[in-house]
Design a protein that fits this description.
Number of domains: 1
Shape: elongated
Order of helices and strands: EEEEHHE
Strand order of the largest sheet: 4-1-5
């Protein structure tokens, strides 16, 4: 079993119900891998819209959501 990761970035914003613009984290996706780097490569390969939308992949952060046993 491989670790499961969530990838996110501080880039971007959201619009509140009252139409205020708010800075927020953006969840880019979830991916499995032996290492965070492996999982990130899979994430980017499977989701070309991430780079295509202008996200700076060097700013992408991650957390383990499920550790391999």
């Amino acid at each position: 079993m491989k670790n499961q990761y969530v990838f996110f970035t501080e880039e971007g914003y959201t619009i509140a119900p009252n139409n205020d613009t708010l800075d927020s984290y953006q969840i880019l996706g979830f991916e499995a891998g032996e290492t965070p780097s492996d999982a990130m490569s899979l994430l980017l390969d499977n989701n070309p819209w991430i780079s295509g939308s202008g996200f700076d992949v060097s700013k992408v952060q991650y957390r383990i959501v499920l550790r391999a046993t």
